Amino acid sequence: MKMPRGSARFVIGFLALPVIIYVVFVIAPYLQAFYLAFTDWRGVSASPRFSGFDNFTKLLSDPTFWTAVGHHVVLLLVLPLATLAIALFFAFLLNMGAGTKGVRGSKFYQAVFFFPQVLAVAVIGVLFQAVYRPDQGGVLNGLLDLVGVEPIGWLTKPNLALWSLIAVLVWQAVGFYVVLFAAGMANIPKEVIEAAEIDGCGRARMFFQITLPLLWDTVQVAWVYLGIAAFDGFALVATLSVDRGGPDQSTTVLPLEIWRTAFTYSKFGYASAMGVALFVLSLTFAVLTLRVTRRERIEF
Amino acid sequence: MSNLTVDRPVERGGAGEVRRPGKRGNGVLGGLSHIALAIWAATVILPILWTFLASFKTNTEIFSEPLGLPSSMHWGSWGRAWEKANIGQYLLNSVVVVALSTAGTMLLGSMAAYVLARFSFRGNRFLYVMFVSGMVFPVFLALVPLFFVVRNLGLLDTHTGLILVYIAYSLPFTVFFLTAFFRTLPSQIAEAALIDGASHTRTFFQIMVPMAKPGLISITIFNVIGQWNQYLLPIVLLSGNVEDKWVLTQGIANISTNAGYQADWPSLFAALTMTIIPALAVYLIFQRQIQAGLTSGALK
């Protein structure tokens, strides 16, 4: 619509409040973060003192930083792969290929699988404390006890704790992607599937050569979503892990270190530098993924 | 909605039971896939069910017989969670905060999106990009400056501050989605209303908003769930000695930290149950809309 006369006041009136709130609470803080990252501000002095690249050189030789980055690399590899594999598997089972209404109980399964998605991660963290209790009183160790397995320190063993947390992230995410992929598979025309069947296409081949290529756009979006989630993990690590990121930093993540550095140690400049590092890492991931996964779109 | 009762999978004999149109002879496969699906459903249901049951147990029962049923229904823990652990207060706070912030997000977000979608003026593109760019940045980058912005405005430890921040950080996706939505709506009706002498404001609220209802509902659900489940922003912005203002996620995490000291596990699980049940109830009623709302971001 061309700008009709007398509508300037309307446009300004409608935009003023959202723009002000957005600039004050979102844009200004983001810009300030880049500035604070180059200061040694600890919140006391009136104006932060410029310290050049000090924070970043310190960051590069900070073992905690690299431990956290290492955990993001693990998360980045495992979280999307495991979640997508399980979700695609279940979505395929529910649809039995594509283009049909799905197996019996399909709606029930989707409803159950999706439910963790509406729960707060903080609530799930507390819930899984009971599941992962290190003695026989835990749900998981109680079950293992039935088959005579000794209790396992799911969250207390440093080399197991991160995997236990990743399992929870996968547990929560799978349902969302099952619903997403099941909807995508239901949209694949029945004729395509029937034609493949007539040609004697087996189930596995059907999945890899028909369903997956036709679903590629959605899978790509899902990959980016899960990759971005791999750079978070704050709420779960803060509520479920031993000593917030422990034992012995074995589960710590950058968001948690940013929060701790800022609000426990009051190193606001250093925390901002970590924030910039996190931003650079996640942006690099997003750009690379979009580059690598770009393919010809298949129209159907 | 009624899916849970109607489509509940019936125990089936196994081979040959799952009949499909066109008979693919996949009885065994069908049976196996139901087993796989049922196992995942169990991993979702069991921890939640365990928590419900644990809230009626005694301390001893919870950990000596983790897989047993409560000897009798001990409702005492529910009373303690509601009164002493303040779950009632946290629940009320969450309801108030999320009701106001979602209402604000939807009002301001749809106003901005409408103007950006329907009016051409200098700076339109710039403002749109500014709003949408907020989706790229991790909130952890802004965390430190945001804390000081809120503090300098005197809004730290207030619900007003939290509500404004929720609105600001929900605007990017809301504006992005609704701008696209308003562009798809026909413009003739709005033009007719303007010709008939209705003001722009009136045209927006009485014509465009009702027409945009499906999109508005999806995004409302998206925002309600996102803001309800927030954990990071409350623990940063309501971090002072203001326990009476805490929201539910914050309260639950805190109760879980204290449960160990006070050795009152049943009331932790009662608190957890009281947190999960409303989410479950809302989910069962609005399941279809919630799934559509949450996946709307991934499906363009």
From TrEMBL, chain A:
Species for this entry: Actinokineospora diospyrosa
Membrane topology, record value: Multi-pass membrane protein
Predominant subcellular localization, coarse grouping: membrane
Leader sequence residues: none
Domain (ABC transmembrane type-1) ranges: 73-289
Protein keywords: Cell membrane, Membrane, Transmembrane, Transmembrane helix, Transport
Pfam families (alphabetical): BPD_transp_1
Subcellular location as annotated: Cell membrane
Name of this chain's protein: N-acetylglucosamine transport system permease protein
Transmembrane residue ranges: 12-38, 73-96, 108-132, 160-183, 214-238, 268-290
UniProtKB/TrEMBL annotation, chain B:
Segments forming domain ABC transmembrane type-1: 91-286
Keyword Endoplasmic reticulum annotated: no
UniProt keyword terms in alphabetical order: Cell membrane, Membrane, Transmembrane, Transmembrane helix, Transport
SUPFAM superfamilies: MetI-like
Membrane topology qualifier: Multi-pass membrane protein
Pfam families assigned: BPD_transp_1 (PF00528)
Subcellular location: Cell membrane
Spans through the membrane: 28-50, 90-114, 126-150, 162-182, 203-225, 268-286
Main subcellular localisation: membrane
Xref: PROSITE patterns: ABC_TM1
Record-stated family: Belongs to the binding-protein-dependent transport system permease family.
Protein name from the UniProt record: N-acetylglucosamine transport system permease protein
